Amino acid sequence: MNFKSIFEELKNCGTKQNIKVYRKHGAKGDLFGVSFANLKKLKASITPSSNKKDINHRVAQQLWQTRNIDARILACMVADPIEITRNEANHWVADIQYYVLADYFAELIAQTKFGLDIMYLWIQSPDEYIKRVGFAILNFIARNDDDKSELFFHGFLMKIKQELHLSPNRAKEAMNNCLIAIGGRTQNLREKVIEVAESLGEIEIDHGDTSCKTFIIKEYLDKMWERKK
């Protein structure tokens, strides 16, 4: 499928009910209300630009340019982490005002050659969603990069401890989730994360008019490690 047919299919897949749900979660701007099941089907239908399955960076660029939220999430799914440039990444992240899009974008950037370097910059940002993307990249690394040492994460634990309560809402949520991802790596990191969680006390995150709840770090880690047994 090419860009025009993909965008038309996005329109056709959207529902008013999904729009209502996504708005409650903070989605602003142009929105079709496409389910994530349909986004995954569309991803699989996109004609690759090379022999790389599900990858077409030119289509991703065209989808992003529409400013439509569903299209931009799909763009993150099909963009090529090898082709996206650092300059392009900086332009895209400045457009993000929705935490779901931020997390999909973070997964893309975490796989680029500059992902780690740019993460260090973005976690310093005062902007709610740029900071969220930075910590979502760290979350991805914690869950997927087995080569990172325990020492690599120690400084981030201290940063989160110092800044979480002072950070904007959706960045705070990403930091909370990041602690859980780090605590799931090793028993030593689990203990250090629990120490940080105890020093932080109750973490309040505004989930808007939704049924979502803030993850309680120790409870979540206890369940995670029980499943590992």
Characterization of this structure:
- The chain is built from 13 helices and no strands.
- It is mainly α.
- Helix 5 runs parallel beside helix 7, helix 7 packs across helix 9 and helix 9 (128-144) packs parallel to helix 11.
- The relative contact order is 0.09.
- The mean pLDDT is 96.
Level of helix content? 55-70%
Cα separation of the termini = 44 Å
Q: What is the structural class?
A: mainly alpha
Give the overall shape, derived from the CA principal axes: globular
Q: Stretches where pLDDT falls below 50 for ≥5 residues?
A: none
Short characterization:
This protein has 229 residues and is mainly alpha-helical.
Question: Secondary-structure map with pairings?
Answer:
Layout: H1 3-13, H2 16-24, H3 36-45, H4 57-65, H5 69-78, H6 86-93, H7 99-110, H8 115-122, H9 128-144, H10 150-163, H11 169-183, H12 187-200, H13 217-228
Helix pairs in contact: 3-5, 4-5, 5-7, 7-9, 8-9, 9-11, 10-12, 11-12, 11-13
Feature tags:
about 230 residues; 2 domains; about 0% strand
